[in-house]
Amino acid sequence: MNLTNYVKEVSQEDFGKVFRHTAIWNTRLRTTGGRFFPADGHLDFNPKILEVFGLETFRKIVRHELCHYHLYFEGKGYKHADADFKELLQKVDGLRYAPTMPSETAYHCYRCQKCGQEYRRKRRVNTKKYRCGRCHGKLLEIKSLET
Q1: Residue 142 pLDDT more than 60?
Q2: Could you give the number of structural domains in the chain?
Q3: Catalytic residue annotation
Q4: Which residue of 32, 33, 54, 121 is 20 to 30 Å from 69, comparing CA positions?
């Protein structure tokens, strides 16, 4: 899929306006679906949103970024808190917030052998070096979780 052509198509169909800049995939985006750059007018999009949530949700995110884009170049309020932005976003049925991405972080769980206190950590803990913070008992790794 040529992203810039897709954004031009969405802009023309949903806004009736021309998109004159470029759209780029940005794999470093984690918590957002896209970004608008007023300095040069280009748009960045998170490719994982398309993979995980599908084309319908991705199109709504494209509409969201195009709201920023078109309002900025018309000299109207283009920020999230502006009434112009909220009104246009509702009119074109864009997403207000990006959907939450599923987490891929592995967690390590430890339990104190003395008091039963449980600890959940992203990084492994050296159980020979570290003890329970509550009673100074010995820690035992109970499981690794994908969450």
Answers
A1: yes
A2: 2
A3: 65
A4: 54
